Amino acid sequence: MLLFVALTLSMEMVGFPELRDYWSTESIFKSEWFSSIMARDRFFFLLRNLHLTPNNKDTSAIDKLYK
Predict the structure, then answer these.
(1) Helical packing angle, 2-14 and 40-49, nearest 10°
(2) Confidence of residue 58 (pLDDT cuts 50, 70, 90)
(3) CB neighbours of 4 closer than 8 A, spacing ≥ 6?
(4) Tell me, what's the pLDDT at 60?
(5) Are 44 and 35 contacting, i.e. CB atoms less than 8 angstroms apart?
(6) Nearest CA to 33 among 5, 18, 11, 1?
(7) CA atoms within 13 Å, Cβ hemisphere of 5
(8) What is the pLDDT of residues 4-50, one digit of tens each?
(9) In the chain, where do the E strands start and end?
């Protein structure tokens, strides 16, 4: 998880236009550092499944689709 956060913070400093460009093999976007830390598919899997919602709120009676 620490590597995921490190990649996310370093993406902010590099500033490619698209997320997939960090793992691109084209010469203009080539950066082997990102692919050496984590595979592209693994990064997108973690990004897709990460949620930062507090679990102590009980709104199940109000909104059944809260989570």
Answers:
(1) 100
(2) low
(3) 38, 43, 46, 47, 50
(4) 61
(5) no
(6) 11
(7) 2
(8) 999 999 998 888 888 898 998 887 877 888 889 999 999 999 999 98
(9) none
Q: Is 48 helix (H, G, I), strand (E, B) or coil?
A: helix
Could you tell me which of 21, 41, 39, 20 has the C-alpha nearest to residue 30?
Answer: 21
- φ, ψ dihedrals at 10, nearest 5°: -75, -25
Q: What angle do CA 9, 1, 56 make, to 5 degrees?
A: 100
Q: Among all chains, which residue has been given the structure tokens 């595979």?
A: 39
| Measured distance between the N- and C-terminal CA atoms of the chain, rounded to whole angstroms | 22
**What is the CB-side half-sphere exposure of residue 7 using CA atoms within 13 A?**
23
